[in-house]
Design goal:
Two copies of one chain form a homodimer. Chain A is mostly helical. Chain A has a single domain, classed as Farnesyl Diphosphate Synthase, CATH 1.10.600.10. Helix content of chain A is about 70%, strand content about 0%. The first copy, chain A, contains 15 helices and two strands. In chain A, strands 1-2 form a two-stranded antiparallel ribbon. In chain A, strand 1 (about 95) and strand 2 form a beta hairpin. In chain A, helix 2 crosses helix 6, helix 4 (about 65-85) packs antiparallel against helix 9 and helix 14 (about 255-275) packs antiparallel against helix 15. The longest helix of chain A is centred in the last third of the chain and has 28 residues, at about 205-230. Chain A is globular. At the A-B interface, helix 2, helix 6, helix 7 and helix 8 of A face helix 2, helix 6, helix 7 and helix 8 of B.
């Protein structure tokens, strides 16, 4: 089963990588430097957790994998844009990302800013351009959903709260609010968009999937905090221990590493439970859940 | 006729302002500071040239004004986001915008960055959320069109070329390439989206409108360069003479102010000609054309 999952994950990672290579503007088309920076940012790195979630969620609704690939690429472009902007000096000021110099270090700040902006536009271009859902109306709802997840009441809003929290002591509910937005919203969108590429879900399935998506979004961040606190730059591929250094509240700083790991495990159980309504159709999604929560890097 | 136009323009400016006030997240909803910065950036300023173009273009296809208002708001949000990001220190480094401190001065750089990011997301959210076209399929094409106009082969790409051109001597075709992307793409999108809110255009109408949109987009920039070279901060509402100071190539620096004004007039004639296929339906669009090209501020 583990080997089977690894094969599945690897083939989807290759698929999304190949697809992103084609969907991104070629580096020899003007403006070349900008296109080069966009490709540098997106390609050749990352675990592609959001695409894996989208592919697994697509299995719940028998979604065509071609469609899911485009939807997953759109989500991944939003994720990549957020990393470029988050690393900028006026934000988290980080120089290392996925084991390589951050975009603004490899290029310059203006190019990184514009690369992020352009990646966001490209994500929505894909959702407008390709046929991804059974009806155009359902596809417009995908546009809305991704935009909400990315915007001020989603990912960007979470980042704003995160920045405001540096040096502040947050309560657990405040920390949760921040992460539900900063990381959770886009992870949720990945799950929902993947499933929307296929047939309609009934109400209890929709509710179950949405609750699953919330749990996995939060669990992802809890695990991220644990790994950030424990890892070295070599294992993490980005600057380790940044949160502690920046005096940022994390699940580890509030709960301690042991309790944070327990919390991740509780969220995993909760996530599993909300998938029960799908029976065996959710086998892959359970595997991705384990992959996210029990990862070591 | 002129008075009639002024009344029409004023009422549409009020309409778009009122609409943006409602469409933007309230400043008392978390994250408050981010929402406040988004509202500060978008509301209470600007000539709303793009919305006026959208409203006038909507008359060509008998578009419902409620629909055009939302589509125009989406275009204006993209425009507003681009101004916030362009003013950042790593880009044009400008402290004054529409007679007020730029967003990163009034708030801080990180907030300005996230406000711009969130405004872009909100633009696409509107296009996914409201019914704007006769069919959802046509509306998906609006999503694609706006995304292309905003992205690396549109506005953001033009800004990248603009930044790379500081201190360089550009030829007229190179300058044109830059502006067709930086300013022209979004102005074109405003025209096209406005018209798409109504009934379908036939092929010669579509071709005519697209050519009109190209002309007006370029003319807008030519006039902008003339005004920037001649104006004072008080009349312009932003730092005047920045282009010369930054050693940026402009229509004035390449052609001289007299020839630049002539070019604007030639583009005006070309724009008028391409509207002939619409007959009297294009009356309003001709007035907006004059308003843009013969403005003094």
């Amino acid at each position: 089963m583990i080997t089977d999952f690894q094969d599945w994950a690897r083939s989807r990672q290759v698929r999304i990588e190949t697809s992103l290579q084609t969907l991104l503007p070629p580096a020899n088309v003007a403006p070349e430097r900008l296109h080069d920076a966009m490709r540098y940012t997106v390609l050749g790195g990352g675990k592609r957790v959001r695409p894996l979630l989208a592919f697994a969620a697509g299995e719940l609704s028998n979604a065509d994998e071609e469609r899911v690939t485009i939807a997953a690429a759109a989500v991944e472009l939003i994720h990549a844009y957020s990393l470029v902007h988050d690393d900028l000096p006026c934000m988290d000021d980080d120089v290392l990302r996925r084991g390589k110099p951050a975009c603004h270090v490899a290029y310059d700040e203006a190019t990184a800013l514009l690369a992020g902006d352009s990646l966001q536009s490209l994500a929505f271009q894909l959702l407008g351009e390709y046929r991804l859902a059974d009806t155009p109306q359902m596809q417009l709802e995908m546009v809305k959903r991704l935009a909400q997840a990315a915007g001020s009441r989603g990912m960007a809003g979470g980042q704003a709260v995160d920045l405001a929290s540096v040096g502040e002591s947050l309560t657990l509910p405040e920390l949760e609010f921040m992460h539900i937005h900063k990381t959770g919203a886009l992870i949720r969108a990945a799950v929902i968009l993947g499933a929307r590429c296929g047939g309609s879900l009934n109400e209890s399935q929709s509710t179950g999937l949405d609750h699953f998506a919330k749990c996995i979004g939060l669990a992802f961040q809890v695990v991220d905090d644990v790994l950030d606190a424990e890892a070295t730059p070599a294992t993490l591929g980005k600057t380790a221990g940044k949160d502690a250094e920046n005096n940022k509240p994390t699940y580890v700083s509030i709960l301690g590493a042991g309790r944070a790991r327990e919390l991740a495990e509780e969220l995993r159980c909760d996530a599993y439970q909300s998938l029960e309504v799908f029976g065996t159709m959710a086998g892959r999604l359970r595997q991705v859940t384990d992959f996210i929560i029990r990862r070591e890097f």
